[in-house]
Amino acid sequence: MVGISLTGIHYVYLAFIVFILTLMIRRRDTTMICVAGLFALGFLAAETLVGSVSGVFHSFIYATKELMGTIMIISIIVAMSRVLIRTGIHETMVAPLTSFIKTPAMAFWGIGLIMMLTSFFFWPSPAVALIGAVVLPVAARVGLPALGAAVAMNLFGHGIALSGDYIIQGAPKLTADAAGLPVSSVIQASVPLVIIMGLVTTSVAFWMMRRDLKNGTWRDGLVAVPSAAGALRGSDQDEGAPPVLTRNLRRALAVIIPLLFVADVAAMFMFRLQGGDATALVGGTAVFILVGVTLLAHRNQGLEKVTSYMIDGLVFGFKVFGPVIPIAAFFYLGDAALTELYGAVLPEGSQGIVNDLGMALAGVVPLNGAVGAVTLTITGVITGLDGSGFSGISLAGSIAQLFAAATGSDAATLTALGQVAAIWVGGGTLVPWALIPAAAICGVSPFELARRNLKPVLIGLLVTTAAAIFLI
């Protein structure tokens, strides 16, 4: 493999990676450049205009097939979340936890932990609406500022929970596929990084909040914005009166639904379910919850409402992953997709474009694990600037594979580091347009929330990168 010579395909692929990074730094959309990259690689591989044009479409299909499980689980979770919100079951589920919130400090950590646990199962954006309407008034009564609540929801949900994504496993699936690794290895490698990042970031944010409140320098950034919960709840004028459940039935369902997901977690450990199998179990459970609650709540209209909620969830899922498909299609070509779509177009003995580039890089640049770790963090930060968090983690996985091949470092740890950095920045803690749900539900400016998160997240990234250097 060391003797593999690079071809035009390798250099074109590398050039387009640079183009994509440049656009992300400038906060521009990458779809067009990814399509151009797919066309250019297809033309070099197929050597015909028809083959390259067709290759763009086939690459989209390949990426969609790879991502479909992730898209579906998120769509189903959102559909289920919407019916729980509209029926008031979510309020009953969270209400008992609010009795433990007595002080601003308890409110900050309590909201954060509730948000984290909910986000593991529902993802952060639905979780914001699921818990915000109930927990925030309680936090306000004990003196926690609205911006402090938004910081807690943001860091614990869009930071800790989403960067690990241990239940739904959408993030590790994307990065693991791009790096050519099993999902389980990326998940295991991410655990210490997620813990370190989470502890450092939330502790610094809490200390800064207490300091500024004490010194009188706190700015809450209150604004009048639409409710994020309302976006998931939908328009009651358009859909008729909200569905009504009896108090006892809401209480029963508020107990049964969490128990069903706890049973899923127990089954994952008992039967050693990971990756797609674990996701399928959670997704199937969510479908049954969606159907059951909808039929109970809407009665005669239940059959039609099940379809309506499913459509709402699918619209949300494809809206979130629409920008991801083109960039994922391009980066999949760096590994197995190129051979599957175009045949054996690389030199004999090639292990894929990314691996070949890694070995070539090792021959000309004295690299080491520390350089690789710093590079992955920077790559994650840059790719997160588009505000998606997910559109760039395929790139992080590919670059992790490249550096691991070049330095002999632990590919899983490098991949997990890139994933953590990309999602903490772009998943909704630093980029203003990505943290609108948490800002909206709390009624604060997303720009003020991003400013408040900046120092804690940057300090967390520095400490986590240093820890990763020792782990690889």
From TrEMBL:
The chain crosses the membrane at residues 6-25, 32-61, 67-85, 106-123, 189-209, 252-272, 278-297, 309-333, 353-378, 390-409, 421-442, 454-471. Keywords: Membrane, Transmembrane, Transmembrane helix. This is Transporter.
